[in-house]
Design brief:
The chain is α/β, with parallel strands linked by helices. The protein is built from nine helices and six strands; from the N terminus they run ααβαβαβαααβββαα. α3 crosses α8. 37% of the residues are buried. β5 and β6 form a beta hairpin. This is 3'-phosphoadenylsulfate reductase.
């Protein structure tokens, strides 16, 4: 992890476009090396999906130490929580887990918000379990930039995503696998014996909360198993924070 005295990157639109043009010709390990030497307050943010696991492995293989932010929504599959433990043991990163405000267990969340909040108001649910804990994590840890596992091949809002983007809050997001396909991710996982979610062997490709994730059918898009039957492609974590807060 770079020291907190490292310079903070200040970019205008033309500079950001230039950087993305340069990075688009680089491999993920080169992008991660660039990020680690460019940004102070750099973290990896992951829910231990396939892409996030690949990034953890690349960082480790490059000898780059980046602390990890994990948002525990209290509605993850047990397999996801087990993978978080195995990944931390494998790579030895500093793991910072944040949960919904005022809640330590799923029972706490139900007592505070009622049962099945995701059915009654999915925006409030997304804000409560992901957006608010993430923003609290950034503020608590002093995160200025985060590495994500998002890819263009996941389609939806991600289809035209750049490698580096800056939120309205000023947070920088780096997407080193933006140009990769799911097959490239899967091939890397298997070739390098990277820990992955046991649910992938049961037909899942993108794993979120247990109540809004199902296995993907043959021929379906990678994220078709997320929020099936709904016009939704993001959980809110990568939506505009100020709009969701309002």
């Amino acid at each position: 992890m770079p020291s907190l005295s490292a310079p903070v990157l200040q970019l205008d639109e033309s500079q950001l476009h230039h950087i993305n043009s340069k990075l688009s010709a680089m491999e993920p390990h080169q992008i991660l090396t660039w990020a680690s030497t460019t940004f102070a307050g750099l973290y990896q943010e992951t829910a231990f999906g396939p892409s996030g696991n690949v990034i953890s492995d690349i960082l480790s293989s490059q000898g780059i130490s980046v602390p990890v932010i994990f948002i525990d929504t209290l509605h993850h599959f047990d397999e996801t929580l087990d993978l978080a433990r195995r990944s931390q043991e494998r790579y030895g990163f500093d793991l910072h887990t944040f949960k919904p405000e005022g809640c330590h267990t799923r029972e706490d969340f139900i007592a505070r918000h009622g049962d099945n909040l995701w059915k009654r108001d999915d925006l409030v649910y997304d804000y409560s379990v992901k957006v608010e804990p993430a923003r609290r994590a950034y503020e608590t840890l002093g995160a200025r930039a985060v590495i994500t596992g998002r890819r263009r091949s996941q389609k939806g809002d991600r289809a035209t995503m750049p490698i580096v983007e800056i939120e309205s809050t000023g947070l920088v997001k780096i997407n080193p696998l933006a140009m990769w396909s799911f097959q490239q991710v899967w091939s890397y996982l298997r070739a390098n014996e990277v820990p992955y979610n046991a649910l992938l062997d049961q037909g899942y490709k993108s794993v979120g909360d247990y109540h809004s994730t199902r296995p993907v059918k043959e021929g379906e898009d990678e994220r078709a198993g997320r929020w099936a039957g709904e016009e939704k492609t993001e959980c809110g974590l990568h939506k505009d924070y100020f709009a969701m807060r309002a």
